[in-house]
Amino acid sequence: MAVFANSVKLMLAAGLLLAGTAVVAYSADSGEEMYTKLCSGCHSASPAFKGKPVDGLLAGIDRVKNMPNASGAAARMQQTVKTLSPEQTKSIATYINGLK
Ligand code: HEC
pLDDT tens for residues 86-97? Predict the structure, then answer.
């Protein structure tokens, strides 16, 4: 019985550890980190559209994403934003909105 109780405790501890890892992995993908990694190369750390409302930023990103026959840098931005989930795109837009 004691052995059983101990292994339940162990499984609980392992579960908590896993949950902790998931939280860390998520926060490593913050809007700031994604912006720095994926966007700042073209738009700089201080983009022309910093501080804009989140909705306007999302509309701008969508406009580029859906541009037909994009070429050059716009086509490369399309490749970049295509890989992002709506949640990721929104957290990047929220980060840009907070830039002064
Ligand atoms: C390879 C270069 C490149 C990368 C990487 C890139 N962009 Fe862009 N971005 C552009 C270009 C070029 C335009 C202008 C497209 C056009 O209107 O012809 C643009 C336009 C925009 C606009 C619209 C601005 C407006 O006035 O409507 C937003 C917002 C934007 N980018 C955000 C982002 C975000 C966020 C990322 C990262 C996820 C990103 N971009 C990655 C090149 C890039």
Answer: 999 999 999 999
